Amino acid sequence: MEVFSEYLDSMANQGHRERMEEVLTWVNNEYPHLMPKIAWNQPMFTDHGTYIIGFSVAKHHLAVAPEAAGIKHFSDEIVQAGYEHTKQLVRIRWDGPVDFSLLKKMIEFNMLDKADCSTFWRK
């Protein structure tokens, strides 16, 4: 998790920082084989050089980005969890709960779906 230290330290809002740290720590603990990294000034996790999931910060929400395929696959579950989404990201409000079971499904979907992927992004 050291790779995320500087990023987390740069977050001015303590509550947002704690939430982001909670989510990143959870991913790291659940999937220790995933590679944590900062790219495009955002924390993310990769597997065999391919993108699995990334996170970013906005004023009102934590953005989770499992790529468009992940959003499309889980669109109904995302809405049922009470989250808004676009084609590329899920918005988890800072004042709302994190549905870790949904996060787990999105990560595992990407790991399986991209098991043979040799590029960073899906084509």
Describe the protein in words:
This protein has 123 residues and is an alpha+beta fold. It has a single domain (2-110), classed as Aspartate Aminotransferase, domain 1. Helices cover 41% and strands 24% of the residues. It contains 4 helices and 6 strands. It has helices at 5-9, 14-30, 67-80, 100-113; strands spanning 35-39, 42-47, 50-57, 61-65, 84-85, 90-93. It has a 6-stranded antiparallel beta sheet with strand order 1-2-3-4-6-5. A hairpin with a 4-residue loop joins strand 5 and strand 6. The model has no long low-confidence stretch (mean pLDDT 96).
Short description:
The protein is an alpha+beta fold. Helices cover 41% and strands 24% of the residues.
The H/E string reads: HHEEEEHEEH
Strand residues, percent: 15-25%
- Total tally of structural domains: 1
Please bin the fraction of helical residues. 40-55%
- The number of helical segments is 4
Helix/strand/pairing category: alpha+beta
- The neighbouring-strand order within the major sheet is 1-2-3-4-6-5
Mean pLDDT: 96
Lay out the secondary structure.
Elements: H1 5-9, H2 14-30, E1 35-39, E2 42-47, E3 50-57, E4 61-65, H3 67-80, E5 84-85, E6 90-93, H4 100-113
Antiparallel strand pairs: 1-2, 2-3, 3-4, 4-6, 5-6
Helix pairs in contact: 3-4
Key terms for this structure?
Aspartate Aminotransferase, domain 1; 41% helix; six-stranded antiparallel beta sheet; YdhG-like; 123 residues; alpha+beta
